[in-house]
Amino acid sequence: MAILLYNGDFGTDAWSEALQQQLPDETIYCYPQVPNREDVEFAAVWNLPQGELATYPNLRAILLLGAGGDFLMRETRLPNVPIVRLVDDAVIGDMTQYCLYWVAHYYRNFHEYARQQLEGVWKRIEYPPIDEYRVGILGLGNIGTEIGRALSCTGYQVSAWVQSHREVDQVKLYKGVEEFAPFMAQLDVLINVLPLTSNTHGFLNSERLGLLGTHAKVINISRGAVIDERALKSLLDAGKLGGAVLDVFASEPLPSDHWAWAHPLVQVTPHSSGQTYPRSAVNSLVDNILRIRAGEEPYPLFDPTRGY
Amino acid sequence: MAILLYNGDFGTDAWSEALQQQLPDETIYCYPQVPNREDVEFAAVWNLPQGELATYPNLRAILLLGAGGDFLMRETRLPNVPIVRLVDDAVIGDMTQYCLYWVAHYYRNFHEYARQQLEGVWKRIEYPPIDEYRVGILGLGNIGTEIGRALSCTGYQVSAWVQSHREVDQVKLYKGVEEFAPFMAQLDVLINVLPLTSNTHGFLNSERLGLLGTHAKVINISRGAVIDERALKSLLDAGKLGGAVLDVFASEPLPSDHWAWAHPLVQVTPHSSGQTYPRSAVNSLVDNILRIRAGEEPYPLFDPTRGY
User: Fold this and answer.
1) Which residues of B touch A124 (CB under 8 A)?
2) Would you place residue B304 in the very low, low, confident or very high pLDDT band (cuts 50, 70, 90)?
3) What CA–CA distance (Å, rounded) separates A33 from A90?
4) Helical H runs in B23-160?
5) What pLDDT is attached to residue A87?
6) Distance from CA of residue B13 to its chain's centroid?
7) Per-domain residue ranges for chain B?
8) What is the enclosing helix (H) or strand (E) of A267?
9) End-to-end alpha-carbon separation of chain A, Å?
10) d(CA B205, CA B160)
11) When you count CB atoms within 10 A of the terminal residue's CB, does the N or C end of chain B come out lower?
12) What does the pLDDT read at residue A75?
């Protein structure tokens, strides 16, 4: 039997090495090199071409190699096997650090200081007490909750918008459709962590983004298609938004003619807020392979109908 | 009786207002408006011109308005009254945030991503596990200790160089002259928090800075004169250092013709790592005024012979 590896453009060398080190007797196929489809017992994959997963007759589980499983949403026929999410505390820690960095960037005016340096200006810029700086989180799953906790420990005033009842220490919750507008209106920074599903596709459209104050900034670390990129550009151009940090885009790699590259109010990073490293993430993979072989349930399961 | 206020170029309006709110019956003189020198009971000051402090016959205490008291070192004759340091947790928190921001900036390659954005390049940059990224602290006083604690909680491998015996959780200590070179050699980032004294003036000279690896970065948040700025420039220009974040300079405001403004490896901020805000700092001032009037010792005392 064999484990099939695929990680989109990011390559599988490091995964293959880390996996082989922990499971030395295992046969590993790196897609598209698949000598025998019937050998494939586990598909440890991300962004595998559409339709491919249905072609392995002896597949026992799909193990995701990244935090998101949205690439599975385009499948019309998924094999009837468990799909297992990748949970890697190192990735969640990295995404949290990414958010702390960019919130501090705005709160402490580092974007202004960079401009002042270009102009040779020595001038302190005032900032409010940290507990008056308001950061909001959209998407209070395990990643959003950890980001909220870290922001709150740092001292920011943290809130989140949720649709169902939740309790999170030190995070003020705005609930349901009627509290969405007041949630947005009070923010200095909005962090989008919503997973991409049919419900969240284009959720941050012109109308919803327009609820933010003109000084407010948007940080997107989930999936590009949750934001209507044209609407975001229009609001930035019209002075109705203060700035954006975009780590994810509807089309990746970001096309060279995309407006975001050269927009003075936009920071682009290449889907790197939480880079998955086999050095830490391989443990979750190996654990679940051993669980399944021992007849136990893999954990945590991914639900393609919810998108997370 | 009166309180004399002076805060260098930063102005005293906010201090005066905050102080008057807590002590409404108090007379406040904002230097250089001093109707009667004999009225001055407390000098709440920073960067007061040399010689000025000795001209108030009824002075009971000098209350520092900033974290450093190095401006007192140029005085040849200080009045024989207690000098009280300003301790403001908000300032220490801000300095800590400043360091976390810039260490993340280097660790997570945000300087490279900014360059990639200018060039339209979409490419992830690798980084090591956070516990292999080594940050060192020079100056393990109350500020340096807090910065070390926060870096260590974030996950970095933190070390510090000390001259006398200390114990700090999660911070590896290098001790004494013989361990200075190995301390410097292992670092990815050096944070200087040494106070400026006659012993530390020019301490980070060419020889000592040259002990750092060629990829290493320097963050200076204490006082500019602790670093030999020409030596730093030479090392950067020669490719023997990776970069520097300089919040403080030997001469401030930074002269418009200073090399640091335009150096591609240097980030300049205007002595803003920990801005002292009267909104939080006034409490320490009022506490000590009331203590002294009640016949109690003010706290904590500043020792001009040590420089902190």
Assistant:
1) 10, 270-272, 275
2) confident
3) 30
4) 89-107, 110-119, 142-154
5) 86
6) 23
7) 2-88+276-293, 89-268
8) strand A266-268
9) 28
10) 18
11) N
12) 87
Judged by average pLDDT, the poorest of A159-168, B55-64, B86-95 is A159-168
Query: What is the C-alpha to C-alpha distance for residues A208 and A182, in angstroms, rounded to an integer?
Result: 11
The reply to whether domains A2-88+276-293 and A89-268 share a CATH topology is yes
Q: What is the pLDDT of residues A21-34, one digit of tens each?
A: 999 999 999 999 99
Rg for chain A, CA atoms, rounded: 21
* pLDDT of res. A254: 97
Q: Over the stretch A71-92, which tens digit does the pLDDT of each residue have? A: 888 888 899 999 999 989 999 9
Q: Find tokens 């999410």 and name the residue.
A: A85
Amino acid, single-letter form, for residue A211: L
Between A278-293 and A89-107, two packed helices, what is the crossing angle to 10 degrees?
A: 140
> By the 8 A CB rule, do B182 and B211 touch?
no
Question: Whose CA is closest to A48, among A11, A8, A13, A3?
Answer: A8
Sole residue written with tokens 């949630």 = A183
Average pLDDT, rounded, for chain B: 94
- pLDDT score of A306: 76
- Cβ contact, residue pair A120, B93, below 8 Å: no
Confidence of residue B77 (pLDDT cuts 50, 70, 90): confident
CATH architecture classification, B89-268: 3-Layer(aba) Sandwich (3.40)
Q: Residue B13 pLDDT > 80, yes or no?
A: yes
Residues of B in contact with A90 (CB under 8 A): 129-130
Residues of B with CB under 8 A from a CB of A: 10, 90, 93-94, 97-98, 100-101, 104-105, 108, 110, 113-114, 116-117, 120, 122-127, 129-130, 154-155, 252-254, 256, 261, 267-272, 275, 277, 279-280
Q: How far apart are CA A221 and CA A107, in angstroms?
A: 18
Task: Give strand pairing partners of B241.
Answer: none
Q: What is the mean pLDDT of chain A?
A: 94
CB B251 within 8 A of CB B223: no
Residue A220 neighbours by CB under 8 Å, 6+ apart: A192, A226, A227, A244, A245, A246, A247, A248
Model-wide pTM > 0.90 = yes
Percent of chain B with pLDDT over 70: 100
Residue with structure tokens 């309790």? Answer: A167
Is the separation of the CB atoms in B298 and B291 below 8 Å?
Answer: yes
Task: Give Cα B55 distance to the centre of its chain.
Answer: 29
Q: Say whether pLDDT at A283 is over 90.
A: yes
Indicate the class that CATH gives domain A2-88+276-293.
alpha beta
Q: Which residue of A has its CA nearest to B254?
A: A122
A97 DSSP 8-state letter: H
Asked whether B80 and B74 are in contact (CB, 8 A), the reply is no
Residue B155: pLDDT over 90: yes
Q: Decide: B247 and B278 in contact? Cβ < 8 Å.
A: no
